[in-house]
Structures are given as structure tokens and as C-alpha cells.
Write a structure and sequence with these properties.
Elements lengths: L10 H9 L10 E7 L2 E9 L3 E8 L12 E2 L6 E7 L6 E8 L5 E4 L15 E2 L10 H9 L8 E5 L6 E2 L5 E2 L2 H15 L3 E4 L3 E2 L12 E5 L6 H13 L3 E6 L25 H4 E2 L4 E2 L6 H17 L4 E4 L2 H5 L21 H17 L4 E4 L21 E3 L1 H11 L3 H4 L3 H5 L10 E5 L11 H4 L4 H17 L3 E5 L24 H19 L13 E5 L7 E6 L8 E6 L5 E8 L3 E8 L16 E3 L9 E7 L3 E7 L4
Parallel strand pairs: 9-12, 9-22, 12-15, 15-18, 18-19, 19-20, 20-21, 21-22
Antiparallel strand pairs: 1-2, 2-5, 3-6, 4-5, 6-7, 6-8, 10-11, 13-14, 16-17, 23-24, 24-25, 25-30, 26-29, 27-28, 27-30
Helix pairs in contact: 1-6, 3-4, 6-8, 13-14
Length: 638
């Protein structure tokens, strides 16, 4: 039972709320079980400044709109509140709201509800936040690692379709089911983090979570808030960080949701040229309204504080930054200076990153931002947006475009595979092969690869090796690790049975080994965002469709030399320039037979000879496997 200090709204609370600086509104608004004057019950508080009447309706009063009217606070905050005795955990409720401007009436879910009915039901549920955490060691380690160079290999998961259960495979895994299976799998696969597509409550399952109504509640499709905490706890116990997709860019128009909340456009802009998203048939938050900023910032910090999560990936940032996003001329309103930049959204994103950095300096914020907006991942103090990382959408598009071409044509498109290094250090980039690339008719990654079955898998192995050797952190959507052969479907499980067949099981084994190699080789992550960590050996061998480069760590002896052959032709006596006398050894080869390759390897010690090449005094002679990547290091006795 919560004590009343959590819910008693002070003048300072109202001040922070009105200033857009209240980061813990979830402690003040919403429903809170408490004891008042010796009586157990529940306190309710909701922001509805344009309401003429607000009452709590629910199963406890047979949804009677007259039974429990709320009182409007005296301070003109627009907040209504009531204490209702003798109701508690599990009570289903909504707010009945009648607008004073137009008599509009609606029953609304609680914007601050921490638990909801399972869709298609839409009531909020009174619930507690009690949970005994077991991840103290993880959180302590997380704090210690702030500022350190760390590997980051992220497995992107949609909870409803990673695996299913039941005879027909139609039943969701619960959070607790997932906790029995997913942490061990991720640990075995060598991933450092999991990123969940939005788990915040959403009425339409087919939105994959990107049309949220419950900004403080994990979806009840898979269990209770405590069940989701248990899943995070178990992931932390296995050393896996948890990143959540968070969607402050838009929200759906469901009647019980935030849209037209008190008979006015409270959370969204009134003018559809500012407040409506044509792409998603959804509504845009009014970032210039301070109370809305307090709502959103409280939501972000709630997931970090209450659920111990390790990062937030902010969806559709580009749609927030540009007033003319997906709009024709005349369909948008310029800013006060006549430009297309959404100044209020820019300030909000900076506030978000500053608040996270202030409260949780040891977590990640990541932007999905698809344009050339400058300094997305640079500090706000120097004019940046303040994110820690940004998805490298240009790399993803160019690389997949290149890899989809028949090898015979790749010689004429060498620039597609190398161009990303022209701007690789302008931001702190994460390389994403995400869910977006395997939906809407795009097919699975394996189908983008040309050639027969063996060549398709060899191409995919080379792609993954290139991704892990390229500067930046890594993200791969579920199913990509074993070559899922169907386009992702949110209403069925991945095809796990494919792993019994060699190409698929061997690809999964290679991704596991690639993760392990990446995590244990400092040169692949110590300078992942700095130009000091990368040097071309040969960018110009377009005739052979070969690229070669060095990934550098703090210690020269840790450097990794990378050579990738993007054709199915074995290239013998292929020399690359290297700096030092000594012996090198091959430390990873995607063509290894254990990965379903053809077994063209460079075995034993490889002597560097005084044959100048690529501007270096010495060189080493290699055999390049077909559609394969080779990683080399100097031997320790050098």
C-alpha cells in the first residue's frame, strides 16, 4: 500500500508540471493505492483542463458516471482528483470526461495507467509496482563502465513472434515464458543487448507496438508489469542489457486513448497540418505544450527507473524534426522563422537526452533518424540533439543495394560498399539490419542475396562479417541470425525448425562465433566512433570487388586486418600491404566448413615479406575465399 506522500500534489509539483520539467509525474497522476485516514482505497488524479465534469467509472460502481465525481483542484492546474475507499489492486476503471466547450463526452483510459486490460478490452487497471529485484550486480557494473569502450551487439526482438506455443503455434509466450528461453539463447549467441520493439500497451497488435496508448504500461498480452520486470531481471542476470523502443513521435486515435482527451486537442496539435501524421494515420504530440513534455519525459524516465532498462531507442526521429515530413506544399506550417525545422520537437529531444543523462548517465539513447540532420549524437551543449547513437540508415541502404546485385555487376558499384566510410565518424553510428528491412514485401535478408542456395548463404555471411568489421555498434533483427526464409510475420513464430538444416544452423553458428570474436577483440570496438579506429588498405580494387582495411585498437598488436571478396571467384596470391615485419595468422574466415563454407582458408603462419604494396613497406600473400571475409592479426611473438 503506497503512502500518501507519493500522490499528494504540491505547489512545486504543479510548477514543474507547468514548466515541462516534471520527470516523475507517474508518482502523482494516475491511480495509486493508499491509506487515507485509516481507510484503504485508491487515489485517482487526471489532467483534463477543459473538462466540465470528470468522474471515475469502473467495475466497482457498475460504470456509473454519476457515482464518483472528481474534484477540480483549486490551483487552476486542470488536474482532477478523488480518493475512493475500499477499492484496490485489479480494479478496472476509466475516466468519464465531459468537455465544457462543446459538451463532448467520452470514457478515457488513464494516461498514467501502469496496467491495462488485454486488448481488445480497453480499461485501465489499478495495480502496484512491487517487485524484488535481483540485478544489483548488473546495475553496479553498468555504472562502473560509463565512458569505457564497450562492444555492443544488439538482437532486435518482437516479443509476440520470436517464438509461439500451443498445438497450433498461435499462443503468445508470456514474459515469464520468454524469461526461461531468451536470456540463455542471447548469452549463448554472444549478444550484449536485446532491443524490444515497443512493449508499451498498444490496442492494435498489427502496429507491432508503434501505435501506443499506454506510455507507462508493458502490454498485458504477455503478462503483468511484474512479469516484465522478471524478464528484465533474468536478462540482467545473464549479462544481457535491455533496450526498449520508445515512441514519442505519434499516437493512435483510439477513443479510449490520448486523442481529443478532454474534448479538446490536449496532447496533440489542433491544426492537422501540425497534429496529424499522414503516414501512420495518427496524431502528433504538441511538444510546445509544457504539460505534454512533462508527460513524455516522465514516461521515458519511468522505463529506466521502474524497469531498470538500459536504453531507449527513439522511433521516427526524422518525423519529429521536420514540419514538412511526408507533406506536400500547403500541408504544413513553417516555424516562426519561416523554416521547416520543428523547433519545439528539437528542444523536446534535447530536454529528453539531458534528463536521461542527468538521471541515468549509464544508459543509452539511440535515434532512428533517416536524414542528414547534423549532430544527432553530439552533446546538447555544443548544439547537438544529445543522443548517444544514431542508426546508420545510409550504410544499411547502400550495403543491401550492393549485396543484392549479382557479383558480376558489383565491380561497377564499389562506391556503394565503401561510401559509408566517408561519413562514418560524423555521428556515433549503430549499424542496423532491422525489422524494417524484412517486411512490407521486402522479403527476408537471405532472399536479397543473389545466386544459388550456397551463394546466398555465403553472401549473407560476408555481409555480416562486413557489418561487424565496420566501425559502429551492431543490430540484427531476430531470424536474421539463421537465415529465416520467410518475410517476418508478426502473427506467427520464426521458423526455428530451419536450424536442423546445415546452411541455417551453420549460419547461426557463424553469427555466434562472430559475436564472440567481436566482443573479445578490442580493435573492433575501442574506436568504434573515432577515425583513429579505421584505415583503408585498398579501397580501389573494384575490378576484383575486394575491399581491405584495418580496424585499430589502443594497442597496435590488437589490430585486425580485414579482407572481403564479394565475388564467388577464389583469388589466389592476393597481396595486401602491411606495416611490420613478422608473421600474421588468420583469426576468422567466413568460408570455414563449420559455417557451411567451402573451406578456402589461410592456415599456419603467414610471413610478411619486404614487397611494398598499398603504400606500405611489406605485404602478405593470401588466398581469398569465394564470397568470403578474412580477418588477420599479427602473431603474439611478433
Amino acid at each position: 500500500m503506497e503512502s500518501s506522500h507519493l500522490t499528494r500534489l504540491t505547489e512545486f509539483d504543479i510548477y514543474l508540471f507547468n514548466e515541462g520539467k516534471h520527470y516523475t509525474l507517474y508518482d502523482k497522476l494516475g491511480s495509486h493505492m493508499m491509506n487515507k485516514d485509516g481507510v484503504d482505497g485508491t487515489y485517482f488524479a487526471v489532467w483534463a483542463p477543459n473538462a466540465e465534469r470528470v468522474s471515475v467509472v469502473g467495475d466497482f460502481n457498475e460504470w456509473n458516471r454519476e457515482a464518483n465525481p472528481m474534484a477540480s483542484r483549486w490551483d487552476n492546474s486542470g488536474i482532477w482528483e478523488i480518493f475512493i475507499p475500499n477499492i484496490g489492486k485489479g480494479t478496472r476503471y476509466k475516466y468519464f470526461i465531459r468537455s465544457h466547450n462543446n459538451g463532448h463526452e467520452a470514457e478515457k483510459g488513464d494516461p498514467f495507467a501502469i496496467h491495462w486490460e488485454v486488448s481488445p478490452l480497453t480499461a485501465s487497471i489499478v495495480w502496484d509496482r512491487d517487485y524484488q529485484w535481483n540485478d544489483g550486480k548488473w546495475l553496479e557494473e553498468r555504472k562502473k563502465k560509463v565512458g569505457e569502450d564497450q562492444p555492443m551487439a544488439v538482437y532486435e526482438v518482437h516479443i509476440g513472434s520470436w517464438k509461439r506455443k500451443g498445438d497450433d503455434g498461435k499462443e503468445f509466450l508470456s514474459y515469464r515464458d520468454l524469461a526461461e528461453d531468451l536470456p540463455g539463447y542471447l548469452k549463448w549467441m554472444g549478444y550484449t543487448h536485446v532491443e524490444f520493439l515497443p512493449i508499451m500497451e498498444h490496442p492494435f497488435y498489427g502496429s507491432w507496438g508503434y501505435q501506443c496508448t499506454g506510455y507507462f504500461a508493458p502490454s498485458s498480452r504477455y503478462g503483468s508489469p511484474q512479469d516484465f520486470k522478471y524478464l528484465v531481471d533474468r536478462l540482467h542476470e545473464e549479462g544481457i542489457g535491455v533496450i526498449l523502443d520508445w515512441v514519442p513521435s505519434h499516437f493512435p486515435n483510439d477513443l479510449h486513448g490520448l486523442h481529443y482527451f478532454d474534448g479538446t486537442h490536449l496532447f496533440e496539435h489542433q491544426d492537422p497540418r501540425q497534429g496529424y501524421h499522414p503516414d501512420w494515420n495518427s496524431y502528433i504530440f504538441n511538444y510546445g505544450r509544457n504539460e505534454v513534455r512533462s508527460f513524455l519525459l516522465s514516461s521515458a524516465l519511468y522505463w529506466l527507473k521502474e524497469y531498470h532498462t538500459d536504453g531507449l531507442r527513439v522511433d521516427a526521429v526524422a518525423s519529429m524534426l521536420y514540419l514538412d515530413y511526408s507533406r506536400k506544399e500547403g500541408e504544413w506550417i513553417p516555424n516562426q522563422f519561416g523554416g521547416r525545422e520543428n523547433i519545439e520537437a528539437i528542444n523536446f529531444l534535447r530536454d529528453f537526452n539531458n534528463a536521461v543523462d542527468e538521471e541515468f548517465p549509464d544508459v543509452h539513447t539511440i535515434a532512428e533518424e533517416s536524414t542528414a540532420w547534423p549532430m544527432v549524437s553530439r552533446p546538447t551543449q555544443i548544439g547537438g540533439l544529445g543522443f548517444e547513437m544514431k542508426w546508420m540508415m545510409g550504410w544499411m541502404h547502400d550495403t543491401l543495394d550492393y549485396m543484392s546485385k549479382e557479383p558480376i555487376y558489383r565491380a561497377h558499384h564499389q562506391g556503394e560498399i565503401t561510401f559509408s566510410l566517408m561519413y562514418a565518424f560524423t555521428e556515433n553510428f549503430m549499424l542496423p539490419l532491422s525489422h524494417d528491412e524484412v517486411v512490407h514485401g521486402k522479403g527476408p535478408l537471405i532472399d536479397k542475396m543473389p545466386g544459388d542456395e550456397w551463394q546466398k548463404f555465403a553472401n549473407l555471411r560476408a555481409l555480416y562479417a562486413y557489418m561487424y568489421a565496420h566501425p559502429g555498434t551492431k543490430l540484427l533483427f531476430m531470424g536474421g541470425e539463421f537465415g529465416q526464409t520467410q518475410e517476418w510475420k508478426h502473427d506467427s513464430s520464426l521458423d526455428w525448425h530451419l536450424n536442423q538444416y546445415s546452411p541455417h544452423g551453420s549460419l547461426q553458428w557463424m553469427v555466434k562465433n562472430l559475436n564472440d570474436f567481436y566482443r573479445t577483440e578490442p580493435a573492433l570496438y575501442e574506436y568504434q566512433f573515432q577515425p583513429e579506429g579505421f584505415e583503408w588498405i585498398d579501397i580501389n580494387d573494384w575490378q576484383n570487388s575486394v575491399i581491405s582495411f584495418v580496424r585499430k585498437g589502443h594497442q597496435q598488436q590488437n589490430n585486425i586486418y580485414v579482407v572481403i571478396n564479394f565475388t564467388p571467384i577464389v583469388r589466389e596470391n592476393y597481396r595486401i600491404g602491411v606495416p611490420n615485419k613478422g608473421y600474421m595468422k588468420e583469426v576468422f574466415n567466413t568460408d570455414d566448413v563449420q559455417f557451411h563454407g567451402s573451406g578456402v582458408l589461410n592456415t599456419g603462419s603467414l610471413e610478411t615479406l619486404p614487397i611494398p604494396m598499398h603504400g606500405r613497406e611489406r605485404s602478405v600473400n593470401l588466398t581469398l575465399p569465394p564470397l568470403g571475409a578474412v580477418f588477420l592479426k599479427y602473431e603474439d611473438n611478433n
